[in-house]
Every structure is written in C-alpha cells, then in structure tokens.
C-alpha cells in the first residue's frame, strides 16, 4: 500500500490554520486592545512556523469525528494551542532566558518591540488563548481549558523550561526525557487530546492520543536536536549549531547522533501503532508522526 | 443604623483566603513541578497582601446565594483571581518593567530567585489559575475561564499595563481612567462578576457587580495614588513617593490631591448604591467599597 501523502495534507491544513489564526485576529485582540500590543501579538503569531500543534489537534478531531468538516470547538482549540506555543517562544527568546535574536527567520519579538512589550505580548497571547477556548456555549470548553492549562503550566511546559535552565541539571537520559516530556511534549500531547475531546471521541481514542502525542513529542524534539547538529542556518531560520555552542544539553550530546536517530524512528513506529485503530494502516496522523522526524527545518 | 463593621469581616475573610491558598498549594504546583519553581510561585502567592479580589469574589457569591457556606466553584474562582493578580505583580516588578526591589515589604520575586525564574513563576501562576478554575464538573467553570481571561488579557489588565508604559501617553483624565479601568479595574470587575456567576446570581446581580466593580476599581487606584503621596514607606511596604519620583502619571498629578479624594468618595457612594438591592442598606460589600479608599496601606 502506498504511504499516505503528507505534503498536500500539511499544505492544506497549514493554510487552513493560517486562515483561522488571521480570522481570529479580532478575537485575539478584542476591542480596546492598545494598537501597539495588538501589533506585537500578531507579529509573532503570524510569523509562520509549522503549525504542528493546531494541525494535530484538527487531525485528531477529524479522525474521531470521521468527518472532514471542522467543528467550531476544534478550531478554537487549534488556535488556542498556537497562541500558547507562540507565547512560550516569545518569552523563551527574551534576554533573561535564551536571548535569541532570530526566530523563524525573523527578528525576535523583543528585538522589534523592545523587552517590556515582548513580555506583555507573551502574557497577552497566553491569556487570550483561554478567552478563545472558553468563549462559547459548548460544555466541553471547560474541560479543554483544564487540558490546556495543565499542559502549559508548572508541571508541563513552564516546568520543563525551568528544568532546562536549572543549574543542577543532570546529564542523564532520564533527566533529558523528563525535561522534554514537560517542555515540548506536554503541549503536543494536549494538542492530540484536545482534538479527541473537541471531536467527541471516546476514552480509547483519548488513550491513543496520549500515547501518540508522547511519542511524537519526543521524536520531534530529538529531530530538533539532530537538525541543529546537521543543518544550515538557512534551513533552520535560526543560527545552526547554537545548541552545541551554548553547551546545551541535547539528545545527540547524551546518546550520540546515530542512537538519537534510531530512538526517533522507534518513537515514530510507536506513534503509528497507537493511531491504527483510528485511521487504519496509514493516514494523516501516521504521516504526521513520520513528518516530525523527517522534516528538514 | 450603625455601619457594618468591616474589620472582623475582612480579618475572617482574609484568613479564610490565606487558608484556601495554602490548601490549594498542591493543586497550584501539581505533582512533577520542579521544586525551585514551586518555591518561587509560593513565595509571591503567600507573601500576604490584602486579598481584595478573592474577598470580593466570595462576598458576591455569598450575597447572591444568601448563604454563608462556601461553594467549591467560588473558592476556586477566588484563588484563581489571586494567582492572576500575583503573576501580574511578579511580571510588573521585573527589571524590564518597573524594576522594583520591594513588594509587600519583602524582596521582589526576581530579587530572590533571579530574573529567569521570576518570569517563569509568573507564567506558571497565570497558567495554573486556569487549571484551578477549569478543573471540576460544574458547567459554569467554562464561563468563569472566559471572564477571567477577558479581564486579564489584551483589552484588560495586560492592555492597561501597555497603556501605562506607552511613550505616547496622554496626560488627560480620560486616558488615566481608561488605563486604570483596564490595568486594575478589569480584574476587580471580574472578581465581582465571577462571584455572582459562581454563586448562581441573576442578570440583575451581574449588572450590580459590574457597576460596583468598576467604581471600586477606580476608587482603589485613586486611593493607591493618594497613599503614595501621603504615606510612609513603612505603612506601604514599598518606597513611598516612588510614583512622583519616577514621573508616573497619577490621579493627584492630573486632578490634584483634594479633587482625587472627592472623586474616590463619589465612586464609593456609587458602589454602595449598586449593591443595595443585594444586601440592603449596609453590608460587607458596601463596607468593602469604603475600605478600598479608607485603608492606610
């Protein structure tokens, strides 16, 4: 059987997410938002990117609903996930954390708008994620807010960032796995779970989403680390080799390049296995899992 | 008729809120939270303060429910409000914004934990507010998340902060009112409205809460500005006269001291009027409105 063709799927889904994010710009910056704040929030939100989390959320909603029409809740969840992801990039780039000048090939938020506004644009993006997600009559929205907040919070993304900058970081695979399960994995797992919840899936589908999200989240991070070693700045849209230079703690540094690649491939196989009950032998979710490690940027 | 005695009410309600915040420490920092992050979040959350927003939320829930037993939703809403208020203080104190060394008589979060962790502790507090608020079976929780996010977001608290640091700030009363209705007023209005929603109040009560919250929010800010002119550092727990020194834009600077005090008194009268249908001629809400301008710290 021919493998599911991801490229047209990704292109159309990414375009759909871009359109949704732009259409939601009014809700993102409600009436009364100071124009400069609105500009700073939109700058980072609409700076491109792979839109992996919203695409996954929508793909899971479609898979459990067995329909290709979007439901309003899944769309809001997809946008909220990208708001949260974007806020985390804006704050991570700040001088007191990574002090990065480039993101997605463009100057970082604080380079354009200054540190005070970048801090507040990040705060605004995080907060408006919950406005978008919570506003609407559907009872499932409360549960989605809880999912998103738990994933983004102290035992999720924020906690993972703290582990990443901790002075007493342990140079072990166990620590690295814990770090990334929190820092990037939690939000990817949430994207999958939120898609199932928004699409009205059952508990078995929720478990599939959790397993898939965990595997893809780790595979994605390993691929990121590997790309940093093997790619050029042009492909990445940020300086290549920055991890090694900063003495950052990566999968290739702990496992070596080949073992890292092998681990990523095993995780992808696990993810494909997890979604077989939802989409059969091959489909967009399995293809997305492969994409997470095969991408070049 | 003797005025409602606020002091014992405030003392008992503040103590109740302290107890609730401490009891929620487990949920604030879910299993898996890095200990240092948990410590930084607790440091600012449990650093004292007037707990005005949670007390108002609970007082409104009690007023509309005509009962003194707390409901779980109102308690979670009260805690979530204080998380959000605390996060805003932690971020406002950061070097790139106000660069303050003292808060509530103690070193600010970044003075104790460093700037990276203070930034992330603020992010964590904001996010966990929604975990606490959204986790539970009651359908009203989704609506409460929307209220809180709108109040804290780009057209609310974050937007107000942006207006406050804007270079093209206008030295007019209209600008000052808009700024404070967003920066501090939005969250105080939300505290009142969330109390009504959590307590199961009707639309008339929601309108009362909105009018009351708007008036008390402004009165509170005017009193803050007046206190900065007239108080000592010891009473305030932070350097007095800091506003004037920093050339900050305040009600006394725009209106003069006496006119500022008069405006605050008129707002308190408006707030008392708004809650008369809920608690009769005098009660905790009217007393809280008076307290917002009569306090000395």
TrEMBL record, chains A, B:
The keyword Magnesium applies. One of its GO terms (biological process) is terpenoid biosynthetic process. GO terms for molecular function: metal ion binding; prenyltransferase activity. Pfam families: polyprenyl_synt (PF00348). Coiled coil: none annotated. This is Polyprenyl synthetase family protein. The keyword Isomerase does not apply. CDD domains: Trans_IPPS_HT. GO terms for cellular component: cytoplasm. Its cofactor is Mg(2+). InterPro entries: Isoprenoid_synthase_dom_sf, Polyprenyl_synt, Polyprenyl_synt_CS, Prenyl_diphosphate_synthase.
């Amino acid at each position: 059987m021919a493998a599911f063709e991801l490229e047209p799927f990704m292109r159309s889904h990414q375009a759909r997410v871009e359109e949704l994010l732009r259409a939601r710009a009014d809700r993102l910056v409600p009436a009364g938002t100071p124009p400069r704040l609105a500009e700073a929030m939109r700058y980072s939100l609409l700076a491109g990117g792979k839109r992996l989390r919203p695409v996954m959320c929508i793909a899971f909603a479609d898979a459990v609903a067995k329909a290709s029409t979007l439901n309003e809740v899944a769309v809001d969840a997809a946008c909220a996930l990208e708001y949260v992801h974007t806020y985390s990039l804006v704050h991570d780039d700040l001088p007191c954390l990574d002090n990065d000048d480039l993101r997605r090939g463009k100057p970082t938020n604080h380079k354009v708008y200054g540190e005070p506004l970048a801090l507040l644009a990040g705060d605004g993006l995080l907060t408006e994620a919950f406005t978008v997600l919570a506003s609407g009559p559907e009872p499932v929205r409360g549960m989605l807010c809880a999912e998103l907040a738990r994933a983004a919070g102290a035992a999720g993304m924020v906690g993972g960032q703290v582990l990443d900058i901790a002075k007493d970081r342990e140079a072990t695979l166990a620590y690295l796995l814990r770090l990334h399960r929190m820092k990037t994995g939690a939000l990817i797992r949430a994207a999958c779970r939120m898609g199932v919840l928004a699409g009205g899936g059952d508990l078995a589908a929720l478990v599939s989403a959790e397993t898939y999200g965990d595997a893809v989240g780790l595979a994605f991070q390993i691929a990121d680390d590997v790309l940093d070693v093997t790619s050029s700045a042009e492909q990445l849209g940020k300086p290549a080799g920055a991890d090694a230079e900063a003495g950052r703690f990566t999968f290739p540094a702990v496992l070596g390049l080949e073992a890292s690649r092998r681990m990523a491939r095993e995780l992808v196989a696990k993810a494909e296995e997890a979604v077989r009950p939802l989409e059969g032998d091959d489909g967009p979710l399995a293809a997305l899992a492969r994409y997470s490690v095969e991408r070049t940027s």
